[in-house]
Amino acid sequence: MSPAKIVLFTALGVFSAIFAVQWLRLARDPRRRERPTLSDLGIGLLTNFLDALGIGSYAPTTALYKFRGRPSDELIPGTLNVGSVSVGIAETVFFVTVIAVEPKLLVAMVASATVGAWLGAGVVSRMPRRAIQIFMGLALLIAAVTFVMGNLGAFPVGGMARGLAGWPFVVAVTANFIFGALNTVGIGWYAPSMVVLALLGLNPVTAFPIMMASGGIMLPVAGLRFLRTGRFAWGPSLGLAVGGVIGVFIAVFIVKSLPLRALRWLVTVVVAYAAVVMLRSARRAAGPTEGATRQDFVSHDIKGGSL
After folding, report:
1. Any bridge partners for residue 202, and if so which?
2. In terms of pLDDT, which residue wins out, 218 or 256?
3. Could you read off the pLDDT of 86-95 as tens digits, one per residue?
4. Residue 202: what are its φ and ψ, rounded to 5°?
5. What share of the chain has pLDDT > 70, as a percent?
6. CB atoms within 10 A of CB 67
């Protein structure tokens, strides 16, 4: 194993262990022992099955949560980040072990995404409900557009390079920092990351270990922020964690491939509709009762959040 991979897996183990200790410490409180339902497990299995095949999980998971009406909108970003930690670990171990990528690029991309996720989670974990609804609605619209573009062949095909140097290296690392920050509000990093790396001439296959390793390390880092603020739902996050690992296993070792074009069209319709519903919720939240003061709504946010 190369020194870069040793560093990467060491960091993965350290951050994951810190996250697990903090999670177990909070889980001792009986009030936080919400068990995942069958639908929680089913959503985790389905969306992370799609994730391992390269479609992504954040947009379809958000859409399914919105349709189901649980968890509440302001808890969805934290639930995604906390619940996806185990999935990120599983995908990192598999893809980084199997697919070769230039070590310097891999480590730099993972590090920049992790810093971005830490900073982004600090902001998102304290955002008011309506702001989160707006951002997630826009994130779902962006996801729907990228699915359409992918199906129409509008994305660049990429090159043959396994690494980058000079200004392309700087652009890729900077972009991954931004994607890491945006990921904490529910904007998945798969599609934008693949587009940027392809435009810079990287082999599309090489993008997978970069994306998976970025998620594997930045998710526990971002998840720690959400654990501290309590802005996530315990049952659904456990459903993502358990069902998600099963979904990844099925995708990688059993199914391996599916007609992704048809699946993307289906996911596009679901995600686009969920985006409209989410933005309508934000619009309704913008119409406060006449005569209410700003303090009234601050108090409402405090009472309505699961903090």
Report:
1. 161
2. 218
3. 988 888 888 8
4. -80, 145
5. 87
6. 12
